[in-house]
Amino acid sequence: MEKRKINTNRPDISSEEIKAGRDFNTLLSNYQAVNKPPFYKQKWFLTSAVVAIIAFTGTFVFTTMNDDEVPAAVETPFVNPPLEGVNVTFEHYTVEASDASELEYTTGTKLIIPEGAFVDSNGNPVTGPVEIRYREFHDPIDFLVSGIPMTYDSAGTQYHFESAGMIEMLAFQNGAPVFIAPDKEIQVEMASNQPGDYFNLYALDTNARNWDYRGKDRVVEGDTGSVSDTLSHDADLTSNKSERLEKNLDKVQQQIKELKAEAPIAPRKPNNDRFNMMIEVNKEEFPEIAEFKNVKFEIGEENKNFKPEMAQTVWDYVTLAKGASDEKYEVTFIKDRKQHTFVVYPVLEGKDYDKAKKAFEKHEKALAKKQEKEAEIAAELKEEYADLDAQWRRSLANAVLEETAEMEKSRRMVMRAFSINQMGIWNCDCPRNLPKGALIAARFVERDTLDLGLKYAYLVEKNKNAVYTYYNSAFSEFQYNPDAINMVLGITADNKLAVMTPKDFKKLENAEYVDAITDSNEVYHLPMSIRPQKVRSTVEIRKLIGS
Amino acid sequence: MTTTSKYHVTKEAQQVELNHIEAAKKDPSKFEFLYNKYHEQIFRYIYQRVATKEQAFDATQEVFMKAMMNLHKYQYKGVPFSSWLYRIAMSEMGNVHKSKKANRAVNIDVVHVQDMMDEMEDDSLQEREENKAKLIEAIGELPEAELQLIEMRFFEKRPFKEIGEILEITENNAKVKLYRALDKLKKVAKA
Questions:
Q1: Cα–chain-centroid distance for residue A58?
Q2: What pLDDT, on the 0 to 100 scale, is given for residue A400?
Q3: A479 vs A459: CA distance, rounded Å
Q4: What percent of chain A has pLDDT over 90?
Q5: N or C: which end of chain B has fewer CB within 10 A?
Q6: Are B39 and A8 in contact (CB < 8 Å)?
Q7: Higher pLDDT, residue B67 or A412
Q8: What is the dihedral of CA A159, A163, A164, A167, to 10 degrees?
Q9: How far is A50 from A56, CA to CA, in rounded Å?
Q10: Chain B closest CA to A38's CA: distance in Å?
């Protein structure tokens, strides 16, 4: 970079002096000098070019219309679950429309339905059985997977809901939706973990694509439960059967190992065209030929340098060593400074061969039998492991479900009472602004570099029952509270869960780390980890992200 | 010290200006109104970045020449005419420095350095004159993009919205970038 000249406290220049330097006339004449119309704007050119331009334009328009298909605008559903196959499930109840009824949801919520509460789509009173579908949303994971918009536009300002809980209630008769009669209301006493009295009541208007303010709910006292801190499930990853099978398998494998160690090599008969010789063999050194009687070593045909007269020489030393494969050995003849090494093969003749062959086959048979046994035990053990794994998973899943249900119930500290006069989604919420404290331009990446292409990033703050949803166009102005415990969740294009954990957020306090992840445009490349498992339920998401 | 930003205007004044722009598009001589209105602002912007008055006057004329040449492209879409002119001026400054017609100069008023130190909210910086000297030196060493931000915010007292419009970034992004530059300067000054 070129060194800049730094001036401090340079005397100011007056407006008068600047004004004196103005010269519009020169500017205008310079402009006119350089701004003569080009030849294609001259009159002669314009006239003769008209036809050509029309023809060209016509072709261009025609081509453009054919090549570029303009997709029809498709409006995204206002309630749009982002994670395929995962949602908060409905509980199903059946009530008699003519009678008053009271339903209790798993969280302890009570639904008090008066008699004659339903009408059909024509406004006629409904009698007979009515199916009620009901579900609740209590924490950021529920809000996220449901795809219920958690923002509220008021007087042109967008707020984010901090929720004390939401419900969705639908009713059907013979598969057709039914509605709450105009003169009736259903009383809801929703179990909630948010005791504050600052929450408002809103009904979701999916046509206006906004929440409709409906006043305030009423907080009623509720029971506080207790919950154990640890997950308990008694399934084990071993059983008596598996232990017995494991022992048997070890035993058989040991036997196989021993059999292989003492396995004789396959005996072969000598080739009468090849030279062979007797060599004294140390049986301990070569157990595989220890049982061979009168074994000879035949010079292999690969030894091009072997000469039969070498056999007549009295060598000082003759050594035998294992060769490159089971049946090969190497014999070395040494005399003075001369040394010759040849590949040799053990060979047997007559009865010695027959006996060795029998012994070899017997051994092979014994080994095959043991290996068969090994395969049998291994298969049985695999099956047992699969059973144990399934038991363990079932038990874990049950424990998680039980614990979650227990926690859900115990967390409900108050009952929030309100009436609903229409089916759909209702919300006890408080509008909040985006978190404050830090503002960054963010890009969510995998393995430091690869842009995840997230459509939305969901910022969750611990101890705040809210999800702050950032559309990707707003990633450049990503706000968060550095003093809070933050987490960002995202859903990838292939429907996997991406997580930026509180630990990852903590790293943003480190200037060196920030420098390392910031590009030249001051965009923070925030790494997220992709959970490889395909998630199927909110329980699994909570386990995966450790919430 | 005169500051240059006259960013906030009434709707009526803005409409008058738009009428003048449309008139100048049809008749270049009508550009005089806009030239007279913005000449001083643009001059001061340039003078802040060059060493001599002569260089500043020449570059200012060049900026207005380019503005006249490209006026037909200007459409009011929320970005004020002044910001559009500043973008041309910024680009012209880049050309001038690149072609070595004028060296890049950084003109610092120590009063503004004090403003920067106040903004850094670090009492330990305030105590020593030596820190101020380090800071001035560090400003001169900043990358061009960060220097622009410091100049516009502290020496020319521009609002973030205007800075964002001139640099073609969002207001918030301008804030983020400025505070990162300030942070950098703070570390140098404290070292």
A1: 51
A2: 62
A3: 9
A4: 20
A5: C
A6: no
A7: B67
A8: 110
A9: 10
A10: 14
Mean pLDDT for the stretch of residues A255-282: 85
How many CB atoms are located within 10 Å of the residue A505 CB?
19
At A212, which helix (H) or strand (E)?
A: strand A210-216
Find out whether A471 and A459 touch, Cβ atoms under 8 Å.
Answer: no
Which position has the higher pLDDT, B177 or A284? B177
- Nearest C-alpha in A relative to B181: A522
Q: Write the CB contacts of A228 (distance below 8 Å, at least 6 apart in sequence).
A: A403, A406
Residue B60 above 90 pLDDT?
yes
Tokens 């997580």, residue located: A499
Q: Coil, strand, or helix at residue A239?
A: coil
Instruction: State the Cα–Cα distance between residues A106 and A411, nearest whole angstrom.
Output: 13
Given a contact cutoff of 8 angstroms between Cβ atoms, the answer to whether A232 and A399 are in contact is yes
* Average of per-residue pLDDT across A124-147: 92
Smallest Cα–Cα separation from A146: which of A159, A158, A161? A161
Residues 6 or more apart in contact with residue B18 via CB below 8 angstroms: B76, B81
By the 8 A CB rule, do A23 and B125 touch?
Answer: no
Amino acid letter at B10?
T
pLDDT average, residue stretch A511-538: 81
d(CA B176, CA B164) in angstroms, rounded, equals 11
User: In terms of CA atoms, which chain B residue is nearest residue A23?
Assistant: B61
Structure tokens at B191: 């070292």
The answer to whether A526 and A513 are in contact (CB under 8 A) is: no
Nearest chain A residue to B28 by CA distance is: A28
The token pair at A189 is 């006493």
Q: State the pTM of this model.
A: 0.44
How far is A34 from chain B, CA to nearest CA, in Å? 9
| Structure confidence by residue, pLDDT tens digits, B5-50 | 445 556 677 778 888 999 999 999 999 999 999 999 999 999 989 9
DSSP letter at B142?
A: S
| Residue entry with tokens 């997950």 | A231
List residues bridging with A369 in a β-sheet. none
| pLDDT at residue B110 in the model | 81
Whether residue B182 contacts residue B116, with contact meaning beta carbons closer than 8 Å, is answered with yes
Overall average pLDDT of the B109-136 stretch: 78
A282, A297 in Cβ contact below 8 A?
no
Q: Which amino acid is at A420?
A: I
Write the secondary structure of B152-172 as one string of H (helix), E (strand) and C (coil). HHHHCCCCHHHHHHHHCCCHH
Q: Are B5 and B156 in contact (CB under 8 A)?
A: yes
Cross-chain Cβ contact B136/A4 below 8 Å = no
Query: Any bridge partners for residue B27, and if so which?
Result: none
Tokens for A216, please give them: 């305030």
Is A28 within 8 Å of B61 when comparing Cβ atoms? no
| CA atoms of A13 and A248, how far apart (whole Å) | 98
Chain A from 12 to 71: CB within 8 A of any B CB: 12-13, 15, 17-19, 21-24, 26-28, 30-32, 34-35
